[in-house]
């Protein structure tokens, strides 16, 4: 099944600061196709502030580059850290009253890595379904020596994946 892009909730909370329930009557969804642009021969796909770019390497291989802005992951990381804080039970503090600085120091990097993994997984599969790509296997991460981003400070992260595309086969019968 082809996944649709539902950006009404994200737009309403990120831009307007309110939830979708305040804007749209219950049971009504707004379906907005994601914008796709072509720049320098690369297909560019934007999802709010995240950017996905595809470069065709050959007939059966493409490279997908995801650039994830801090706006895409900071809210999710903060939400998980707040949940951890409410459930934290540390000596010297009442349950749920551990200072956020201590929670951040212990859990910020693992939570950031976990949320990045979720975002990449979600957006890559959404991109593949939206663009209706026939992919063979799973996207393979391209390893590189340069860092994807600064894990200590909120900066844009860049990840590159190589995808194998299914060849087009046409059969002609006499």
Chart the SSEs and their pairings:
Layout: H1 8-16, H2 20-23, E1 36-39, E2 42-47, E3 50-58, E4 61-68, H3 70-87, H4 100-130, E5 135-141, E6 157-165
Antiparallel strand pairs: 1-2, 2-3, 3-4, 4-6, 5-6
Helix pairs in contact: 3-4
- Helix tally? 4
Quaternary state of the chains: single chain
Overall mean confidence score, pLDDT: 76
Give the spatial strand order of the biggest sheet: 1-2-3-4-6-5
Percent of residues in beta strands: 15-25%
Q: Span between N and C termini? A: 34 Å
What is the number of beta strands?
Answer: 6
SS-based structural class?
Answer: alpha+beta
What is the C-alpha radius of gyration, as a whole number of Å?
20 Å
Helix percentage range: 25-40%
- Element order: H for helix, E for strand: HHEEEEHHEE
Q: How many strands, which pairing sense, and closed or not: the largest β-sheet?
A: 6 strands, antiparallel
Note poorly predicted spans: 1-20, 23-37, 43-47
Indicate the overall shape. elongated
In short:
This protein has 4 helices and 6 strands. The protein has 174 residues and is α+β, with helices and mostly antiparallel strands. A hairpin with a 2-residue loop joins β1 and β2.
């Amino acid at each position: 099944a082809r996944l649709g892009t539902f950006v009404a909730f994200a737009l309403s909370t990120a831009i307007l600061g309110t939830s979708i329930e305040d804007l749209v009557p219950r049971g009504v969804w707004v379906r907005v196709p994601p914008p796709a642009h072509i720049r320098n021969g690369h297909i560019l796909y934007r999802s709010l502030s995240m950017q996905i770019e595809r470069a065709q390497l050959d007939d059966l291989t493409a490279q997908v580059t995801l650039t994830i802005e801090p706006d895409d992951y900071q809210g999710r990381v903060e939400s998980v850290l707040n949940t951890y804080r409410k459930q934290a039970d540390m000596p010297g503090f009442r349950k749920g009253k551990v200072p956020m600085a201590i929670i951040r120091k212990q859990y910020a990097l693992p939570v950031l890595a976990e949320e990045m993994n979720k975002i990449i997984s979600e957006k890559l599969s959404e991109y593949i379904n939206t663009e209706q790509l026939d992919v063979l296997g799973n996207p393979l991460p391209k390893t590189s020596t340069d860092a994807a981003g600064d894990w200590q400070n909120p900066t844009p992260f860049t990840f590159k994946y190589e995808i194998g595309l299914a060849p087009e086969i046409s059969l002609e019968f006499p």
